[in-house]
Amino acid sequence: MEKLEALQKKIRERIAGLEYSRQPENLYKPIDYTLNLGGKRLRPALCLLACDMFSDSNDKALETAIGIEIFHNFTLLHDDIMDEAPIRRGKETVYKKWNSNVAILSGDTMMALSYEFVMRAPENVRYEVFKIFNQTAIEVCEGQQYDMDFETQEQVTLEAYIEMIRLKTAVLLAGSLQIGALIGGADKNSAEILYKFGEQIGIAFQLKDDLLDAYSDVEKFGKTTGGDILENKKTFLFLKTLELANFEDRHTLLHLYQNVNVDPKDKVSRVKAIFNSYEIQKHTENEIEKYYRLALDSLESLKVAEDRKTELLRFANQLKRREF
After folding, report:
1. Are 156 and 193 in contact (CB under 8 A)?
2. How far is CA 40 from each of CA 69, 73, 89, rounded to the nearest angstrom?
3. Which residues contact 245 (CB under 8 A, 6 or more apart)?
4. Which domains are assigned to the chain?
5. pLDDT at 33 (0 to 100)
6. What angle do helix axes 171-184 and 126-152 make, rounded to 10 degrees?
7. How many C-alpha atoms does 237 have within 13 Å on its Cβ side?
8. Quick check: 83 pLDDT over 60?
9. Residue 22 has what DSSP assignment?
10. Is the peptide bond before 24 cis (omega within 30 degrees of 0)?
């Protein structure tokens, strides 16, 4: 079985070999630019890793895994427009470097290209793979819409927030594992178990992101902490604090999130002080641990040799321990 790092390298090399030099240049150059911005290539690597768990070769899943990575990058291209984000992975986003219309059209083309690659799955599982991929793509869009809805929604429950991050973040991790398993020869039940593992670890992953945004070491995180606070994002930390806070602290927190005239540094400091008074870091860590344990329980129920679970266990532990 190949290690996750080796599979990530394999994906990087395949992507480096893709050439989009077709015309018109302003359609394909942004695609080439986007795919070469880097990234962890985690989702396609997990697809290959799942294939490895049931097969002696993951090569038959490589093209489908590339399709998953193209799709993931397409979502980032459109997300950057919606979020008005100027920087992605240290470089200008496509809509800033070109314009929004170019970014929309190049993203649409990437979506079509992702289907082309996904459909290179072996014929015996092609329909099932396509069905899972298509459902995943729809759910990612649903998650993004919920995320945007939350920006103007006065009341958001913790349950609604968990469902949003499940859709926006976790289902693509989950679908990548399920698809890889099916290509590798897994039965449907085993593939569904891996889906559950990916879904649960994906939720833990996003909750860890929420926590790191507020509490990470600035040097390790690579950017100023408190970005979610400054953008008034209704993260788990914010929603859990509202659930626990007394009237006065709840009123102050809501005021800080609604007032655009508060000094940014002061805002982050005051919000975190309220978080701290309700031990919100501990509550978030407990929630992460809950989904981490659920993920491990799912993996434990998978009927494959224990040595074939090693890399996924290592991956789960890395996500839990990461500091940036």
Report:
1. no
2. 10, 11, 11
3. 253, 274, 278
4. 1-138 (1.10.600.10), 187-324 (1.10.600.10)
5. 93
6. 180
7. 30
8. yes
9. P
10. yes
* Chain segment 206-244, per-residue pLDDT in tens: 999 999 999 987 655 545 678 899 989 999 999 999 999
Q: Torsion over CA of 31, 173, 171 and 224, rounded to 10 degrees?
A: -70
pTM of the full predicted structure?
0.94
Angle made by CA atoms 246, 247, 249, in degrees to the nearest 5: 70
* Span 197-203, average pLDDT: 97
Q: pLDDT band at 87, cuts 50/70/90?
A: confident
**Length of the chain as a residue count:** 324
Tokens 């986007």, residue located: 34
| DSSP three-state, residue 230 | helix
Q: What are the residues whose beta carbons fall under 8 Å from the beta carbon of 43, sequence distance 6 or more? A: 65, 68, 69, 72, 172, 173, 176
DSSP 3-state percent helix, strand, coil across the chain (nearest 5): 75, 0, 25
In angstroms, the CA 99 to CA 66 distance is 26
Tokens of 220: 């390790």
